Amino acid sequence: MDTIKLFGMPAHRGRWLLIPLGIVVLLCLGTVYSWSIFRKPLEKLLNIGATESLLPFTVLLVVFALLMPIAGFLIDRFGSRVVTAVGGVVMGVGYILTSFATNEPMLVFAYGLVAGAGIGIAYGVPLAVSAKWFPDKKGIAVGLTVIGFGLSPLITAPLAKNLIDAYGVRQTFTILGIVFSVIVVAIATQLKMPPSEWQPPAGNVGSARVTSVRAITEKIWQTQSFYGLWTCYTIGTFVGLSAIGISSPVAQEMIELDSTTAAMTVSLFAIFNGLGRPLFGWVTDRFNPKIAAIASYVLILIASILMLNARTGATLTYIAAFALFWLSLGGWLAIAPTATLTLFRAENYAKNYGIIFTAYGVGAFFGTIVAGRIRDIFGSYTYAFYPMAGLAIAGTIVAVFFLKRLPAVSEILEEPVARS
């Protein structure tokens, strides 16, 4: 019998309420994916170009990735509630400071450094909470939780567009900063980790024992799996975040859609980004990270080819291509954490995924810079899809030869599950 209670219910039932709470937290943090909606107003307001308007987004993603490993240690020391609340407040302060930016350096500091730090601190907590409470359904639980980050533009892109139209871009940052801080801090009070070695009742697991696939060494950087996963994750985020950062400008410049329609397409793409997380989480659980990675790269290659042949007015081609880009990026935000849980010790998940997540920062930094620089040099975003296609091919090769195959059930030990 499960004697631990969550929300007044036995923990194995109450734990399911932690997923929607985590989704809401990540939905607030995921407003970063709506950055393309802010770019044009900021370019006009501050008189900056495409590369400059991408820089705050790039810096935020890098800071976000760099803070993830540190946040993993903070969770162990201060607890999930404190870390989530602090992250939410710091992010909100960053948004409010952004509203006062009058030049590029101030924008980079406020949005890129401060808001990015807040997101980096809070992001991993809902995932770690889900991973701990769902040892029997880790892929689905993490995939469902992280869906909030991907679906965020579905809500925040049109919200930001309407607020910008009504109040201006500066006031919009202030409003979002205050609202998001209040929501994240409120939910933080309900997030907590299970007791050590907690497991759901036997009926929920499906057997008396849970099979665990683990690396022999505690030091993940000493394994082939680490380098294969890290490289594949870098490539996936390089392409995905490049595409996300240029979604609205590509719609307006290449396809010649108006700004309102472009914002609507970003909301549509957010659905695919969200769906990619549980979908690829399931694929990674059901098959292995190698198969999931190759599937993602195939989608990226198809999308790149579509955009290389897109012309003015090719709205359906644009929608199909960017839906695949966003779907594949969403997939990587599930493949990487699920693979980290599967390949390495689950009890070290927060720390291990923090290390793996540095790949996200590297991919974000180079991906967004390359996309903006190509636009400024060649005068069109079309040329940005050549490196995307090339990286999809390279990623497939890396996945095939360097992403370590998961051991079969017969090759691993089965450990008795400690019952609570």
UniProtKB/TrEMBL annotation:
The record's listing under PROSITE patterns reads: MFS
The segment(s) forming the Major facilitator superfamily (MFS) profile domain are 1-407
InterPro entries (UniProt xref): MFS, MFS_dom, MFS_trans_sf, Proton-linked_MCT
Q: Which residues cross the membrane?
A: 16-35, 55-75, 82-102, 108-129, 141-160, 172-191, 226-247, 259-279, 291-310, 316-341, 353-371, 383-403
Under Gene3D superfamilies, the record lists: MFS general substrate transporter like domains
Print the keywords alphabetically: Membrane, Transmembrane, Transmembrane helix
The UniProt entry, under SUPFAM superfamilies, shows: MFS general substrate transporter
Q: Which GO terms describe its cellular component?
A: plasma membrane
Q: Where in the cell is it found?
A: Cell membrane
Question: From what superkingdom does this record's organism come?
Answer: Bacteria
Q: How does it sit in the membrane?
A: Multi-pass membrane protein
Q: Which GO terms describe its molecular function?
A: transmembrane transporter activity
What is the protein's name according to its record?
Answer: OFA family MFS transporter
Which species is this UniProt entry from? Scytonema millei VB511283
